[in-house]
Design brief:
CzcA and CzcB together would act in zinc efflux nearly as effectively as the complete czc efflux system (CzcABC). The CzcB protein is thought to funnel zinc cations to the CzcA transport protein. The chain is α+β, with helices and mostly antiparallel strands and 399 residues long. The strands form five sheets. A six-stranded antiparallel beta barrel has the order 3-12-15-14-13-16. Strands 1-19-18-17 form a four-stranded antiparallel β-sheet. The protein has a four-stranded antiparallel β-sheet with strand order 4-11-9-6, with no helix packed on it.
Length: 399
């Protein structure tokens, strides 16, 4: 493939330094090799290899095991692989809306105390703020009155039951007492339910004290409350989010929708740091935005270390298709020699330049259609050192 043939691998400063160091280490081997080949001239290199093999296939880089180790050259065996093709989308880290809550007082009142601060980590049930509410005072008074009536009804029921069993009073008096007790118990339950609906406990030393508590473990990401402030019952005073999971949201153009599916593997990375997270596409919008004409999608990420902060710009790589390769090698192992892709095959006493025909590629592996058999060991790391030494050897042959 033209793409693979023209592939160049840029060398970093560290790689350049390693190459120079390796050149010094490998120089003795090439000096001996060049001296031996000088007696035969250039006729042997110009002669075509048997079976139509190119001259590159016969080029050997002679190295001792010590030189290979010093140059940091590592090998592995060519093997079958599943190649995953991916598409990249720009995205942004967002709060997990399923684990984000807007905390409201549910009753009007005046702020008496604020216990939570912005950015604070809280646990479920932790006190966030305290309000004084006249409406809550009325509800608690209603509950107390109902509880008193229930206690009196229970005493009356107990007395009427005893008198009826002793045949002192009529059965209808006992039945009336039992009905009154049941009605009193219902009234208490109703008053309790009203209090629990607004998040208040029935029993409190201060009838009007409303305690606002965290609904789950999370971080206070928004705070809109101040001491002495009069709040309506629907005021959003805190926003709490569980940042142990976040969403990586991105948009998909219509032309890419057929390639991205819910459940596909995805990788999320950021230029802000070197971390990378793996996840799956958990949602793709059914509708296109009226302004952008794109569909919103997201990947749910585990975030135990809180490294993925909402608002962070990220890149989302989504696997779009997978294919099986009978033989595959590491993408970094492929170099270009004489405008042909090659790998360096491990042989006794060094490495042999082996031209290959490449097929499909993933982020880190590439299919080999011909030129390399499964199980063949090849150089996979620091192959630029071998290419550099090959170039030096070629220059020496030219002279």
């Amino acid at each position: 493939m033209a793409e693979q043939k023209n592939k160049r691998y840029p060398m970093t400063k560290a790689a350049t330094a390693a190459s120079l160091c390796a050149a010094l280490l490998l120089a003795p081997a090439y000096a001996a090799q060049a001296a031996g080949e000088a007696d035969h001239g250039h006729a042997e290199t110009e002669q075509a290899a048997p079976g139509g093999e190119s001259a590159n296939e016969k080029e050997k880089i002679a190295l001792t095991p010590e030189q290979i180790a010093l140059a940091g050259i590592k090998s592995e065996a060519a093997a079958p692989a599943v190649l995953a093709t991916s598409a990249q989308f720009p995205g942004e880290i967002k709060f997990n809306a399923d684990r984000t809550a807007h905390v409201v007082p549910r009753m009007a009142g005046v702020v008496q105390g604020v216990s939570a601060d912005l950015g604070q980590q809280v646990r479920k049930g932790d006190l966030l703020a305290t309000l004084s509410s006249s409406a809550l005072s009325e509800l608690r008074s209603e509950w107390l009155a109902a509880a008193k009536r229930r206690d009196l009804a229970a005493q009356t029921h107990k007395r009427e039951l005893r008198l009826w069993q002793e045949k002192v009073s009529a059965e209808q008096d006992y039945q009336a007492a039992r009905t009154a007790l049941q009605e009193a118990e219902i009234a208490v339950q109703n008053a309790e339910q009203k209090l629990r609906t607004v998040g208040a406990e029935p029993r409190s030393k201060d009838l009007g004290s409303l305690e606002i508590r965290a609904p789950f473990d999370g971080v206070v990401v928004e705070k809109h409350i101040a001491l002495g402030e009069a709040l309506p019952d629907n005021a959003s005073i805190f926003t709490l989010s569980d940042l142990r999971t976040v969403w990586a949201e991105f948009v998909i153009a219509p032309k890419d929708l057929q390639d991205v599916r819910v459940g596909e593997s995805a990788s999320v990375s950021s230029a802000a740091f070197s971390g990378k997270a793996e996840g799956t596409v958990s949602y793709i919008g059914s509708l296109l935005g009226q302004q952008t004409r794109t569909a919103t999608a997201r990947v749910t990420l585990e975030n135990p270390d809180m490294a993925w902060r909402p608002g962070l710009f990220v890149s989302v790589d989504v696997v779009t298709r997978k294919s099986d390769a009978a033989v595959a090698v590491a993408a970094d192992a492929v170099q270009t020699v004489d405008n042909e892709p090659v790998v360096f095959v491990e042989v006794e006493g060094g490495f042999l330049v082996q031209p290959v025909k490449l097929g499909k590629a993933s982020a880190d592996r590439v299919e080999v259609l011909s030129g390399l058999a499964p199980g063949t060991r090849y150089a996979v790391e620091n192959t630029f050192v071998l290419k550099s030494e090959l170039g030096k050897a070629g220059a020496e042959h030219a002279h």
